[in-house]
Specification:
2 copies of one chain form a homodimer.
Chain A: E1 5-13, H1 17-28, H2 39-44, E2 48-56, E3 59-67, H3 75-83, E4 92-98, H4 101-104, H5 113-121, E5 128-133, H6 140-152, E6 157-160, H7 172-190, E7 195-197, E8 199-200, H8 207-217, E9 221-224, H9 226-229, H10 232-241, E10 244-247, E11 262-263, H11 265-276, E12 280-284, H12 294-305, E13 315-319, H13 327-334, E14 339-341, H14 352-365
Parallel strand pairs in A: 4-11, 5-6, 5-14, 6-7, 8-9, 9-10, 10-12, 12-13
Antiparallel strand pairs in A: 1-3, 1-4, 2-3
Chain lengths: 366, 366
């Protein structure tokens, strides 16, 4: 057994930091007053506060050190450990996590990562392009036609909207089959290498079956909703599909909507989802329909690319109301290792293929 | 196909309510500006605001009506629909959900419910009792011994702490086997009917295997962590185990830590987890280590018991630092259809069996 430790840094908002930091260390490990814990467990499995920086009365940074064995080499337990019960407390926000090499090696991280995704879609050096098939309510024929146009126009990754599940308008099996065929046809017609990522967010006992359908349809990967199905679905999707695994932020906003609670966006989108197995993680970019700042977004990009003990960098995927006009500004902020996600803007004007071509041209000219 | 609708009521904090309510209806359904949506999808799959009550400039209640077909009869998609992208917006909080009978009938709800759990542990009329095996770091032998004492003392439900996963101190398979045996022995020795609920929160492709182990060990159900593994694990655990399914709130706090964002606690713990298949849902009670108010807690209990189109009532399971002394006060607030969860307090004094007996006596005398 190893004596390795992992550390996490928490912002504590609202004062009383010293008491709360110690209580958090106990809560996240023993969840039992220490005077009641057998001596051997105090040595082996109790977390402790190793630093407390309190620049203001109502704000502190607490660094908590955990025996790495508490994670039990399993991602779901790592999440429980980092912020399980702590998430239920007001004013607790995780802003950094440092895992030892031994523990990191138990998590595969992204199967493809930045370079792997680039190889799949044959795109060197330039920003990568994604779009979403929507609205829900379109038929399979309509979705397949839209996917064809977008892929033929030069989009690298054509994904289902996360709201496409198994509704009667476009049932999963038929949709995956027909849209995969449409994207393959577009590739054949144009010499492109677009991939289609169906949304896979089913009842828990249908997850493997849906992945198998995606695989046999020849789709190039999947869109996973870790906030609903669990972060570990990312790893499993990569393993089964050997394709692009894209994480969608739906239902994750509980952790990010407050700046005094939850998980800092860079830790969530650039570290935890990366460890979990996403090749790219969608998040709401600044200037769109949601509320991250440009600085927060740039931090996500930095985390996505930061060295991580052999775990490959992943693509930040800013979305949420982006437009083709903003491509230069977005690339300026995120760099070229980015998956630019533009949805609705490509449907303006009624010619998605032409809009996709403009998007592609914009990305190639930055 | 049905034209049934489901409605959800959202609090909007921070002003600009009319625009935001309409934007939310679009975001949660089409996620595409309506002028770009084909006419047939505007009729079939677009949500709309059916009521907006704005008592103050910075606070409004918006009722949004969704075509029920958007949920596609699948729980993960229902969650995406109710608060997927909406969760990423500040100041959006879901406070009520009304599902049509047709859609509700697709979700089994709790397999046992209040009456079923009572039958399993042979407890009529009185409050039910639960406790947690902790701290992590105890060996299997220590956990089994503790479980024996607690079960012999009259606790109905002896559950793993949610932080017990598959760590080396007490590996899952061995723990489930030995603790199940210990609780069965306690039942045989005392004529009791306690059940043991192992924590099942593994990597996604080990979920079925762990459930099978729980079943073959003869444990009486499972503790599920829906915030980590997904809400739908509750249903599946009930289906496989035909036992008590207890939901733990770990990692769910992103939705409840703010009163201006996320999911109202009664909707989360008394409605959504109930629909999803929990027989009982743990939440942090007022007066403990966390921060719900008494009124919020009583609302959880009311929701857990409210008629729901044939879906059985479930047990609210208040926890998080409760004590035996508080049993009368807790029962006064929650009523007798409650699963009282007391952890650490039963380990004070070094005689868990005696403490369990006091807990049981307190519950029998209210």
């Amino acid at each position: 057994m190893t004596d390795a430790t992992l550390t996490a840094v928490y912002e504590l908002h609202g004062g009383d930091a010293e008491r709360r930091a110690h209580a958090l260390a106990v809560e996240q490990s023993h969840e039992l007053p220490t005077e009641l814990a057998p001596e051997h467990t105090r040595r082996s499995s109790l977390a402790r506060v190793v630093a407390l920086d309190e620049p203001r009365d109502d704000y502190a940074l607490a660094t908590i050190e955990y025996p790495a064995a508490l994670a039990g080499d399993e991602l779901p337990q790592l999440l429980v450990l980092l912020l399980g019960n702590g998430s239920l407390q007001e004013g607790v926000r995780i802003v950094d996590v440092d895992l030892p090499t031994d523990l990191l090696s138990r998590f595969p991280g992204p199967r493809l990562g930045v370079e792997g995704v680039r190889a799949r879609v044959r795109a060197e050096g330039r920003p990568l392009l994604a779009t979403a098939l929507k609205p829900v309510g379109l038929s399979v024929v309509e979705l397949a036609s839209l996917a064809y146009e977008l892929a033929a126009g030069g989009i690298d990754i054509v994904k289902d909207d996360q709201g496409l599940a198994n509704q009667h308008w476009a049932p999963f099996s038929e949709r995956v089959q027909r849209v995969s065929e449409a994207v393959a046809r577009a590739n054949a017609d144009t010499g492109g290498s677009a991939v289609y990522l169906p949304a896979v967010n089913p009842p828990v006992d249908r997850f493997e079956g849906r992945l198998a359908e995606v695989r046999s349809a020849g789709a190039g990967g999947a869109l996973i909703v870790p906030g609903v199905g669990g972060f570990d679905q990312l790893r499993r999707a990569g393993e089964v599909l050997d394709g692009v695994v894209l994480a969608h932020p739906s239902f994750l906003g509980g952790f990010t909507a407050s700046r005094e609670h939850g998980i800092a966006p860079d830790v969530l989108f650039g570290l935890l989802l990366r460890i979990a197995g996403a090749d790219a993680a969608i998040f709401p970019s600044w200037g769109g329909r949601f509320s991250f700042t440009r600085e927060e977004c740039e931090r996500i990009a930095a985390r996505s690319a930061a060295p991580l003990d052999g775990i490959a960098p992943i693509l930040p995927a800013p979305g949420g109301g982006m437009t083709v006009e903003r491509v230069p500004e977005l690339v300026d902020a995120y760099g070229r290792d980015v998956l630019l996600l533009i949805g609705a803007d490509l449907q303006r004007g009624g010619d998605p293929r032409a809009a996709a071509e403009r998007f592609r041209a914009a990305a190639e000219s930055v």
